[in-house]
Amino acid sequence: MMHKPIFFWGLLFFGMSLMAQQGEVINHIYDGNEQASAELFDEAEMAYRRALSKAPEKPEALYNLGNTHFQEQDFDEAKQRFFQTQKFAENKSSKHHAFHNLGNVFMKQKDYAKAVEAYKNALRNNPEDEETRYNFALAKELLEKEQQQEQNQDKNDQQDQQDQEDKQDQENKDDNKKGDKDKDSGQDDEKREGDEGKKDEDKKDEGDQEDENEPKEGDQEKEQPAQPRQTELSKEQVKSLLEAMSNQEKKVQDKVNAEKVQGTPLRGKKDW
What we know:
Layout: H1 3-37, H2 41-54, H3 59-71, H4 75-88, H5 92-108, H6 112-125, H7 130-213, H8 217-223, H9 235-262
Helix pairs in contact: 1-2, 1-3, 2-3, 3-4, 3-5, 4-5, 5-6, 5-7, 6-7
């Protein structure tokens, strides 16, 4: 019997303490809202954090703190707070607002695929919100354009790669043709050199043959008759020659006369 009043007073004290704590949380949230309206975002952030220190899962404090981070363009921090808000939200309205603002963060980060999903979840909790419907359609359009650009880029990359491969193949073919041409040119040069060498040898053989067929200088002298030499004599030489002939003729005549005196020799005489 004695314990009941103690228990009663204990519950009453706990209830009053909880109400006081909730009052403090509400006061901190209110103070943060006032600072945010005045665009004093640092002070607003401190007020919301004081509220969360008393009630870490308070959706209103999480949501408003996320809005403060969004205004300060701290999108990663804002994204985290909006995600926590939808997790601890107690009704569809709170979830709708959390997903809507989460979609706004993804739009700022140009992550259109996640923005589409966030707006879609917001519409599940409030299909009648025109602003969410507009943002959803915009995010979907931007996502389709992005995907189309990626496809075009992939095609361009593939085409560039194919062009590069074709260019490389053509260069390889040109190099091979040049190598074959150089090889053929070398063979032609060797063939020409061989032909010229052969011609030189043929000419040499023909020259040797002509040399063999051509009479030598000594042979020409033997085959050709000796030509009389015409020598012009001086008057003294002619006079001497006539005197010598005259003396020779006189000697012959003297000999003939001498033989006539001795008589005619006998025919048929033999020496034994």
